[in-house]
DNA sequence: TATGAATGAGCCTTCATTCAT
DNA sequence: CATGAATGAAGGCTCATTCAT
């Protein structure tokens, strides 16, 4: 049980440390000490410190892509789809809040090619999200007086900002925040 | 006169580099090379690399505090005050977008005591902002069904997120974004 | 039968890699990958990476000793013996050119006691070779105006240098080179 | 006087150690300890350990090129030119015997682009040397029954091999070896 | 016999900072 | 005021070797 999954333990530990102290201030030595293994073990499972970081991005991007795709595929009306997407994005961001902290703060620490991959996948996600906005505008349920990029940024900023203020286990539940932030967004988005 | 320029040049150069490559990936050597001075000169004006970073936080925090205080001091109604505050915050964030990039990404690179000071001053700002929300709720113009921290975060996230998507000099003007994001926020905030 | 092949395959592969990239730049992992076995297998047949290297020296030294001894034992005149020895040394060096590459470049990578053994055996070989020179001088067929060590070095340098310029399978055949280098050597060596 | 020329001291020390123990077995720490400085000092003057190695090749190649060019430029007959070139090559190789030791053993430790440069410059040298052989053949003073590459290798091997047997300060003087090896070479080279 | 996960010492290199000039 | 050579601690990473299975 103890050494059962060294790789997972290393992933868990590194996210924890990267979120708390930042990628640059976390040494490989700190990670292996915290995980109770040696450097050799880490480099047996990961090719570099950068891999440890990229794994976090990969996990989050894969998850978000799957959720978004699944919700859109249900074929619900734009407003309803948007509500589900937004609530899911907030909920998921809370579930993976440590990963999110790293995700938004440490992009510039990725190697160049990894950064490109991350940006490409984020653009894809963005495009799918934007698609819902466009459909809502065509259906006359979303306002059209504000450019799409502004409408999109107005929501994306929320899950992004969570790690700066929200404490899991605090007074406000995960579900409540998800519902409230979604509500605020949809209120602003609504066609008059 | 000359020395004044050197110090300012170092400040300008370091923000630029920190924003582009991150604090950790920017070496003191790169900064002095880009500024066209030598290390000795840098250490004449700044005690450490950390000072260069803190200066950015100090500049932004001072500015935001001044603007917020000034606007509140006008004694306008809550909704009107809020509109001015939000527009100003977005506009200012765009004017200082490179500083903002560093501000939100590099907190964990600050030395411990500097970090505490930054957090204290941000809390103060937050409190003043929150004060407007409370006043608006008491006046019956802002909705009360959503906790204050969520309402605050819902706006703070916007200027924060600007550096991730907004390009100064692009299709959407600084004033337009400020008005649009403020509009969206106030639409959500409005009591029904 | 199978295990025998594994050991030989490892020996073959390691010479190949050592010759191409040098001993230091060749990792044990590369060797086992190229040989299609695992590390455990390698360490089953060899005690260390150093053993793999020493084996090359042992093979070459044994071979050269056998050939030299055999030729000398024929009891031919010095000049004739020398011709046969030189031609054989060049031919053999070409046949084992990869081993030769390693032999001359990687001595300092041997462990101390192994190095001593190699040096002892090379001295022995040298002594036997020198014996032919002395005999030729006594018989009046080899020049005596140049010190023996210089005469010896003048030939040893040739097989040594082969790996720096000769390509097996190129325009000049193995036999031709052997005859030509021997010819050049004997021309210089000849008493006037 | 003591720290007067740290860069030269580092160059001297590193050649010494590379020649004695090999490049791979010499650590940067050993070099700086032996030179009485710290690692920072070394990396102030050299970009990498590889630079320290390449500097040796550069020094030798520059020297050899200069000497060869100068001698050829005198416009003497081929046999006379060849005698001067060979004697100089042996003499110089003895003067720089530690550099030579490294030169011939550590090529494979050079970085890829550096290796290419070294090979290009060696080819140039070879071409100029070969030019003398061709001229001598045309003039009827050098034998023509052996291919040029073999004739060239027959001499190049000698300075190459020096570090394996010659001890400066031993019984045979630098000038004597130079004259003797040259004599042996020319005796073999002579047209009949 | 053979595996390959894990070790741990050591390596090259970077870099913020200092200080004699 | 300003220089830039030199420091020295720390960092990421490699790799020959071991050992439980």
From TrEMBL, chains A, B, C, D:
<dbReference type="InterPro" id="IPR041490">
    <property type="entry name" value="KstR2_TetR_C"/>
</dbReference>
<dbReference type="InterPro" id="IPR050109">
    <property type="entry name" value="HTH-type_TetR-like_transc_reg"/>
</dbReference>
<keyword id="KW-0805">Transcription regulation</keyword>
<keyword id="KW-0804">Transcription</keyword>
<keyword id="KW-0238">DNA-binding</keyword>
<feature type="DNA-binding region" description="H-T-H motif">
    <location>
        <begin position="27"/>
        <end position="46"/>
    </location>
</feature>
<dbReference type="Pfam" id="PF17932">
    <property type="entry name" value="TetR_C_24"/>
</dbReference>
<dbReference type="GO" id="GO:0000976">
    <property type="term" value="F:transcription cis-regulatory region binding"/>
</dbReference>
<dbReference type="InterPro" id="IPR009057">
    <property type="entry name" value="Homeodomain-like_sf"/>
</dbReference>
<dbReference type="Pfam" id="PF00440">
    <property type="entry name" value="TetR_N"/>
</dbReference>
<dbReference type="GO" id="GO:0003700">
    <property type="term" value="F:DNA-binding transcription factor activity"/>
</dbReference>
<dbReference type="InterPro" id="IPR023772">
    <property type="entry name" value="DNA-bd_HTH_TetR-type_CS"/>
</dbReference>
<dbReference type="InterPro" id="IPR036271">
    <property type="entry name" value="Tet_transcr_reg_TetR-rel_C_sf"/>
</dbReference>
<feature type="domain" description="HTH tetR-type">
    <location>
        <begin position="4"/>
        <end position="64"/>
    </location>
</feature>
<protein>
    <submittedName>
        <fullName>TetR/AcrR family transcriptional regulator</fullName>
    </submittedName>
</protein>
<dbReference type="InterPro" id="IPR001647">
    <property type="entry name" value="HTH_TetR"/>
</dbReference>
<keyword id="KW-0678">Repressor</keyword>
